[in-house]
Amino acid sequence: MVTESMVSTTAKLFNHPLNAWYVVAWDHEVTHRGILARRICNTPMALYRTADGTPVALADACWHRLAPLSQGTLVGDDQLQCPYHGLRYNPAGRCTHMPAQRTVNPSAAVPSYPVVDRYRYVWVWPGDPDLADPALIPDMHQMDSPEWAGDGETIHAKCNYQLVLDNLMDLTHEEFVHSSSIGQDELSEAGFDTTHDENSVTVTRWMRDIDPPPFWLKNMNDKFPGFSGKVDRWQIIRYEAPGTICIDVGVAEAGTGAPEGDRSRGVNGFVMNTITPETDETCHYFWAFMRNYRLESQTITTQLRNGVHGVFGEDEVMLQAQQEAIRANPKHEFYSLNIDLGGMWVRRILERMMAAEGRQAAV
């Protein structure tokens, strides 16, 4: 049950923690053939790979005159050369060459950020590098597991990243925003359970003996040609700080044991979402839809990716409009309903992370 104290603590959007892992790119976007420019947590970064494939993330501003290093070139196996005066930097951010002089100023360096390849993504730690433990990367193992198949895309969302987190933690909006694909009346009628710990929140909802919405009816027919009838539908939303939400979704023939753990008469997918702040009003939204059936079918992979692309496009329109309304009403406070419980616990976790860094939480 939502209380007045919880409503008051969630009235504002929060800035982003820095001591955390964020996805900066799909792994195939960072190469040794060129330099990728991306802004993460208000910090411009220049990304590339060394000749052996190791990812590198440097501040996108030369020590000398702040020229954008992302507009430079790669030299040798691992050096990034400034496009303005030719200073060169190694993966640690140390300058190794200056034009027209033999001695390199020992203070010449740019920040180098911890970076890791995992789950088909490149992850970066924009905060204190001494705290960057790869074991803290959120679990997204379905992305590269041989037991799952799927693909995804990136949305450049014109809104604060917490609005995307709110959207994903409360899926009752599907009934209204996505009525032609995955929405149905039972979403707001069904109860849900919310649990949480220091770094995660889980919201579980079951809808039993219902008609499948168009998206799920098609998927049932992909696996069970000719299927018709009632289904049991589930949504199990798991958030891991600071911005990853993996949603276990699916339907199974009603009464065949899915709520008790037997999903053999159904179709199961994971909506993999990880959201990275770009600025206070924009974010990078990386998503994929992974399934555990008909793994050999590229047709199904493409159809699912395109279908989810359309669904998320509807979300994108709403989120941008919401951000514009926040900008136009800077004194308005958010009010919360029972359906917002999961999102409010997410904000509590982010608020604690900000406090631990000694940074102001509210925008």
What is the class of the largest domain in the CATH system?
A: Alpha Beta
| Number of strand elements | 18
The N- and C-terminal alpha carbons lie at a distance of 26 Å
Number of domains: 2
Give the radius of gyration: 23 Å
| Strand portion | 25-35%
Strand order, sheet with most strands: 12-18-17-16-15-14-13
Which regions have little confidence, pLDDT < 50, spanning 5+ residues? 1-11
Largest sheet: 7 strands, antiparallel
- For CATH, the homologous superfamily of the largest domain is named as Naphthalene 1,2-dioxygenase Alpha Subunit, Chain A, domain 1
Run of helices and strands = HEEEEEEEEEEEEHHHEEHEEEEHH
Helix fraction? 10-25%
Question: With helices defined by DSSP (H or I, 4 residues minimum), what is the helix count?
Answer: 7
If you consult CATH, what is the topology of the largest domain?
Naphthalene 1,2-dioxygenase Alpha Subunit, Chain A, domain 1
Structural class: alpha+beta
Protein name: Rieske (2Fe-2S) protein
Domain Rieske: 21-124
GO molecular function: 2 iron, 2 sulfur cluster binding; metal ion binding; monooxygenase activity; oxidoreductase activity, acting on paired donors, with incorporation or reduction of molecular oxygen
Pfam family, one: VanA_C
